Amino acid sequence: MLPIPAGALAALTGPAARPVRAEWSNDGGRTWMPVPKVGGGEVRPDAGAECRYSGTVDLLGVPLGRSGVNTAVTRVRLWQGLQPPRSEVVWVPAGTYVVDRISRTRLGADLELLGLEDAIRTARLPVARTIGPDTARVLVEQLAGEALPGIPISWRPGITPDTRIPRTTVDEDRWAALADIAAALAGSVWVDARGVLTLGPTPTLDDEAVWRVPYGTALVEPAEEQTAEGLVNLWTVVGDGGDGAPVVGPIFAWDSDPRSITYAGPDPVEDPGAPQRLGLAHVRVRAQRHTSALITGAGQAYDVGQSLLAASLGVQSSLSFTAVGHPGLEAGDVIEAEVRPGEWQRHIIDSCPYSLGGITQACTTRTTSRRLQ
């Protein structure tokens, strides 16, 4: 969650004003020009999208063209304000973007925006390149800095930036290379609301809950849904560079919790017949393999397997609701929601879009599969 002073948070459900402001830059973010007026817009944080932030905005009174807002070099920065009565405005970042499309209007322009991941994604390498061996920190700074000079990089707790990455060949897809490095560190990579390239671990329900939604405070009654799409309860992880070096693994990670309805059995690798022998008729194995040239040790493979398992077990039960908007909420945050009186569930925010200046927010979440009682 983005930091917000306690006094401002306490005003979320009160008569707080929600102003909006925007800035634009044509020099890579070294200088920012204020927008005279923001006519409206929408911000769409989504943990499952390649661009963590996307959106639209209506900018009034801005110049267009080579020396103004354009689709070639312009970056746009949005801010959502929160102003309790008799208090100063607290400004919360609402994304830093490149401009994907411009529609001229009578008073300015309507913009379609994509997060800075798009600038890295479209800065493809002209030819394949060999990188490493070096630390993840050095390689990420190199690959990202070439596309976005000076972009700040944040390494969240749980990620080890000094992990050694072996010599490997990167095809033209620069963003895929960054994603592969993050996956080899048992995490993922995205650009946050402040425009910071961030590498962090896969969120789990053991993370601290940053927001509680009591029953009856949601403006739309929570809608629950379950799906088996993407459900994997047994991962096989292998480190293989294809260069003749010793192969790492296979290392296995599976749902070993007998209380879980996605339980894969006591040992689906060495003793796949145990569920039948023990009368565990509900056990069903859903297996998948992950191979990476960047995995060089068994410990690293184990961490990657646990990260993949955390993500693939957390897709079966989801919750959708609309609540009073929380401008500091980020995709990937853990929340607690009271879906029925007295029944609290921990969920991971997948998406939480909102209208700039609006007071409501739609949230879609996921959680682990229901536990057998």
Describe this protein's structure.
- The structure is a single chain.
- With 373 residues, the chain is mainly β.
- Helix content is 14%, strand content 38%.
- It has an eight-stranded antiparallel sheet. A six-stranded mixed sheet has the order 15-21-22-24-20-16, with no helix packed on it.
- Strand 13 and strand 14 form a beta hairpin.
- Helix 3 runs antiparallel to helix 4.
Topology at a glance:
Blueprint: H1 6-10, E1 20-25, E2 33-34, E3 37-43, E4 54-60, E5 75-82, E6 90-104, E7 108-115, H2 117-122, E8 129-131, E9 134-135, H3 136-147, E10 153-155, E11 164-165, E12 168-170, H4 174-184, E13 187-191, E14 197-201, E15 209-213, E16 220-226, E17 234-239, E18 248-254, H5 274-278, E19 287-292, H6 298-312, E20 317-324, E21 334-340, E22 343-351, E23 354-355, E24 360-367
Parallel strand pairs: 10-14, 15-21, 17-19
Antiparallel strand pairs: 1-2, 1-5, 3-4, 3-23, 4-7, 5-6, 6-7, 8-12, 9-11, 13-14, 16-20, 17-18, 20-24, 21-22, 22-24
Helix pairs in contact: 3-4
Quick description:
This protein is mainly β and 373 residues long. The chain has helices at 6-10, 117-122, 136-147, 174-184, 274-278, 298-312, and strands spanning 20-25, 33-34, 37-43, 54-60, 75-82, 90-104, 108-115, 129-131, 134-135, 153-155, 164-165, 168-170, 187-191, 197-201, 209-213, 220-226, 234-239, 248-254, 287-292, 317-324, 334-340, 343-351, 354-355, 360-367. The two termini are 33 Å apart.
Strand percentage lies at 35-45%
Strand order of the largest sheet: 2-1-5-6-7-4-3-23
Report the sheet with the most strands, covering strand number, pairing sense and barrel closure. Answer: 8 strands, antiparallel
Number of strands: 24
Helix content: 10-25%
Spell the H/E element sequence.
HEEEEEEEHEEHEEEHEEEEEEHEHEEEEE
What sort of overall outline do the alpha carbons produce when their principal axes are compared? flat
Uncertain spans, ≥5 residues at pLDDT below 50? none
- The helix/strand class is mainly beta
Distance N to C terminus: 33 Å
Per DSSP, the total helix count is 6
Oligomeric form: single chain
Mean pLDDT: 89
Gyration radius, to the nearest Å? 23 Å
